[in-house]
From TrEMBL:
Residues 8-87 form the Anthranilate synthase component I N-terminal domain. PANTHER family: AMINOBENZOATE/ANTHRANILATE SYNTHASE (PTHR11236), AMINODEOXYCHORISMATE SYNTHASE COMPONENT 1 (PTHR11236:SF50). Residues 129-381 form the Chorismate-utilising enzyme C-terminal domain. GO terms for molecular function: 4-amino-4-deoxychorismate synthase activity. Keywords: Transferase. It is an enzyme of class 2 (transferase). It comes from the Bacteria. The lineage of its organism: Bacteria, Pseudomonadati, Pseudomonadota, Gammaproteobacteria, Pseudomonadales. Its EC number is 2.6.1.85. This is aminodeoxychorismate synthase. GO terms for biological process: folic acid-containing compound biosynthetic process; L-tryptophan biosynthetic process. It comes from Pseudomonas matsuisoli.
């Protein structure tokens, strides 16, 4: 890391001081509200270079800040189980501020703004470059450098208008438990449809839920069950999942009390509109002298999107992926003044930034990975996102083109 850049530990210190300055808060008695004021924002994957000494050779063509967190003294919180919505104010919010926010929340929504893609999505690397990278990873594995490396490719297009309307279409097509929309100002945003939790923390209890193992959904119920059964009984996918579980046990062990880290759930099936996933759970209790910032510093970025061992895998990612990942494989998180936190692994995530929109798809590469299957899996994971946005591709005459995005792999030769 260049000497003129702020270290991750210093950034976390500033965040901690901001929470302390905001001061304590608690929800009304009997209400379990996750956020009572605090921090909301993102850590990009590349923020990892602020926490560990790593090479930085991949092109930073995005020029996105490696982290951005806002401090909030209010929130609009919806409980989808009880169908209730609450406006929550931190005690520091003045009566005038509360009245102003309530007035603004009751105002009519702004007129709808359009969103459009100026062209279909295209790959940043060629099929041949993808194959070469996979072969190099497997050479490193054979040499004993690593056991697994998460390799990703990027798809890019150009856009105009407000990304919020693209996110609404994506959310309808692919509802996931860690979806998030972060406005970056001036019609720029992070649009995340993530199914994966990074770390949750509440009253000292912490949990991470790594995803490792993917199959597409079937066209018929019979095909769908066959894909799910194949994933559940795949020795390769179970071995990949177990590697990452072991890595995350070590990461949580840096901040958790000795003897508290456990794996209560291993190789569970979770199904989403486009894919089946193999998911595990690793849990622990924070040590008395540690807090959530120690937990983040010791675990970021998530092991499920790096590989094992983590540092060597990240070095290989930097060597073989031509561009920085930006928000992809980073984390979107909230952290309230009580120390309660939840965070995602920002997979299935798009960045609308400086007139361009980017999406990434990847997967874990091991010794017996077959490059063609990995290539197709990286596309399967994001196909529903890119095909949903293909409805916004403007034809030369200005109308919308509903053809599928140009992302399908060519026929096998």
């Amino acid at each position: 890391m260049p000497e003129d850049l702020e270290a991750g530990s210093m950034f976390f210190t500033r965040l901690k001081e901001a929470l302390e300055q905001l001061g304590p808060a608690a929800p009304p008695l009997g209400m379990d509200i996750p956020f009572c004021g605090g921090l909301i924002g993102y850590l990009s994957y590349d923020f990892g270079t602020r926490l560990e000494r790593l090479p930085e050779t991949a092109s930073d063509d995005l020029h996105l800040p490696p982290a951005q967190m806002g401090l909030y003294d209010w929130a609009l919180v919806t409980d989808h189980c009880t169908r209730a919505t609450y406006v929550v104010f931190h005690p520091s919010a003045t009566a005038e501020r509360q009245a102003d926010l309530c007035t603004r929340l009751q105002a009519s929504a702004p007129a709808k703004t359009d969103f459009r893609l100026r062209r279909a999505f295209s790959r940043v690397i060629t099929e041949g470059q993808y194959r070469t990278a996979i072969e190099q990873i497997q050479a490193y594995i054979t040499a004993g450098d690593c056991y697994q490396v998460n390799y990703a490719q990027r798809f890019s297009s150009e856009y105009g208008g407000d990304p919020w309307y693209a996110y609404q279409a994506l959310r309808s097509a692919c509802p996931t438990p860690f979806s998030a929309y972060l406005s970056l100002g001036d019609d720029q945003a992070i649009l995340s449809l993530s199914p994966e939790r990074f770390i949750a923390a509440d009253s000292g209890h912490v949990e991470t839920r790594p995803i490792k193992g993917t199959r597409p959904r079937g066209v018929t119920p019979e095909d769908d069950r066959a894909f799910a059964d194949d994933l559940l009984h795949s020795e390769k996918d179970r071995a990949e999942n177990l590697m990452i579980v072991d890595l995350l046990r070590n990461d949580l062990g840096r901040s958790c009390a000795p003897g508290t880290v456990r794996v209560p759930e291993l190789f569970s099936l979770e199904s989403y509109p486009n894919v089946h996933h193999l998911v595990s759970s690793v849990q622990g209790m924070l040590a008395p002298d540690k807090d959530v910032f120690d937990l983040l510093a010791g675990s970021f970025p998530g092991g499920s999107i790096t590989g094992a061992p983590k540092i060597r895998a990240m070095e290989i990612i930097d060597e073989l992926e031509p561009t920085c990942r930006g928000p992809y494989c980073g984390s979107i998180l909230y952290l309230d003044v009580r120390g309660r936190m939840d965070s995602s692994i920002s997979i299935r995530t798009l960045l609308a930034w400086n007139g361009q929109i980017h999406c990434w798809g990847g997967g874990g590469i091991v010794a017996d990975s077959e490059w063609r299957s990995e290539y197709e899996e990286s596309i399967t994971k994001v196909r529903v996102l890119l095909e949903t946005l293909s409805q916004f591709v403007a034809e030369p005459g200005g109308s919308q083109d509903t053809r599928a995005a140009n992302i399908a792999p060519p026929p096998c030769k």
